[in-house]
Amino acid sequence: MTDNQPTEPRHSKTRQDFDEAQLAGLYEEGMANMALYHRHCQDPVIFKALGDVRGKTLLDLACGDGFYTRRFRKEAGADPVVGIDLSPMQIEKAKAIEDADPLGIEYFAGDASDLDLGRRFDIVTAIHLLHYLESGEEIAGVLGRVHSLLTDSGRFVTMVANPEFDLDIHDPEDSKKKFAYYFSAAPKENGAVMTFHPGGLEKEREITIGLRRWHRDFVNDIAREAGFEPEWHDPFISEEGLEEYGAGFFENYLPNPQSKLLVLYKQD
Ligand SMILES: C[S@@+](CC[C@H](N)C(=O)[O-])C[C@H]1O[C@@H](n2cnc3c(N)ncnc32)[C@H](O)[C@@H]1O
């Protein structure tokens, strides 16, 4: 690159993708279509690992439009709660919802790679972040910042693209129909970009997002280096989901989920 070429701001493609999806209304529509997935497949592992956080301070990174941020405040009891997202349009939406139904949540547009908040939190969450980072150095940078933002014995609770996701046993049609997402490519190498289609939209309006597969040992090593002890949790189906739909409904999802939960415990 020559000196006079403008440099793209970091993560501008990701920011643009989420800004556009939010502006076009596709994000909201996709989230609505994914309600069953969230409720019965993703929420149980997140809320179980989070536990009762009443009165604890919580920072939600990559908060999107605040879907989980609000629930960490309302359902899990965290207080105060702050949400940060790379996409200004996502933050605008989150603030509009906050204005209409105030919960006392503060939202800021910002990159998790450049966090400088001048305050500490008991818990940091990020429901889908590490797979948008582009290298081990970026992951180390974010985890280093999260470590310094956490109070002593704090935790980082995060959903990450499943390190062991296997395209060979994924049924895209079944997944799109039931859970409103599917993968069309998932190379196995560490750092390889998997092609993810969230939101269950029809082909012409489909959202396509690249997610980086980070191998479990790779993430564990970076986390330990940053001063954390990692613990991985497999998703499980809610009791209500099993009752309403039966175990067979989830047979293509459960052995091969899109994401897994990672909890990093601050050590020092
Ligand atoms: C799939 S959405 C998830 C939003 C929310 N956590 C949820 O689960 O409803 C991923 C979000 O990550 C944000 N994001 C991606 N890279 C980021 C970064 N480096 N810093 C902050 N946010 C980021 C995107 O803008 C997007 O809103």
Give structural notes:
The chain is of the alpha/beta class. It has one domain: Vaccinia Virus protein VP39 (Rossmann fold, 3-Layer(aba) Sandwich). The chain is 36% helix and 23% strand. It contains 9 helices and 10 strands. A 7-stranded mixed sheet has the order 3-2-1-4-5-10-9, with helices on both faces. A 3-stranded antiparallel sheet has the order 6-7-8. Strand 2, helix 5 (88-100) and strand 3 form a beta-alpha-beta unit. Helix 6 crosses helix 8. The protein is globular, with a radius of gyration of 18 Å. The termini are far apart. The model has no long low-confidence stretch (mean pLDDT 96). Bound molecules: S-adenosylmethionine (SAM). S-adenosylmethionine is lined by residues 11, 14, 18, 61-64, 67-68, 85-87, 90, 111-113, 127-129, 132.
